[in-house]
Amino acid sequence: MSWFKRVEKGIVTPTEQKKETPDGLWYKCPECKTVATMAEHKRLLYTCAKCNHHDRVDAADYFDFLFDEQAYTELDADMHSADPLNFVDTKGYPQRVAATEKATGLKDAVRSAHGQMNGQGLVVAAMDFKFIGGSMGSVVGEKIARAIDYARHNRLPFLMISRSGGARMMEAGYSLMQMAKTSAKLAMLSEAGIPYISLLTDPTTGGVTASFAMLGDFNIAEPGALIGFAGPRVIKETIGKDLPKGFQSAEFVLEHGFLDFIVDRKDLKQKLTDLITMLKPVEVPVKEAANSASRI
Ligand SMILES: [Zn+2]
After folding, report:
1. How many angstroms separate the alpha carbon of residue 265 from the centre of ligand 1?
2. Which of 165, 250, 256, 286 could form a disulfide linkage to 225, CB 3.0–4.6 angstroms apart?
3. What is the UniProt remark on how the cofactor binds and its stoichiometry (predicted)?
4. 51 belongs to an annotated ligand binding site
5. pTM of the shown model
């Protein structure tokens, strides 16, 4: 029975020649468990090929998806938070901010930029959930307010991409003031006749939903995004009843009239371009308008 005996040595690879499979080469969908290569997942803009689950992505990713040739200019990139209330929970707020800055490479929970989208100028502010839950403190409010001002002064459409747990408790009342500030700036943008589109992504809750996220000329959302004010657990405990299936999903919110439409991330750039083209005021020169009127 010599064929059962290994005559030659098996495959022997010295340790130094062994190739490790690098981390992050594969992606497993948390919804349907389908496995895809990271390259394929990235090509689909971090959505699942099988069930279309939309993964949470960062502000920088949206800038790459939307701006032509991934070229954009960031606004107020260095603004970061003070500690107006000397707030301490499990650690001091400045230490928390410093640790989060170090871990994420971000300065706060929102980034804003301007650039070209399919050849049209656009200002975008997008939130980063990994920075203290995308919470809205005074830096978030101020950066959004400034981005809106930039859009108004340059007469460019404004897109807000929200992904937030709501107000930042470490700034308490200061966080709440950002709701009023951003809303007032948006009112000024509206008076100037400049379009504002709000994209709600997973999750958009609390003071963000209750202010700028729901004030768009169009309020749109990514599929499956959680959208609400208070979380489902709090509501369930308050009303003492079970909540309907799919409660607070983008689809549920759309069905109840709080959204204009849901947009697949892969179609986002084109849909936004169409929308902005449609919203652009047709500027007819005064002289020409008078001539056409006289012909009638
Ligand atoms: Zn999936």
Report:
1. 14
2. 250
3. Binds 1 zinc ion per subunit.
4. yes
5. 0.87
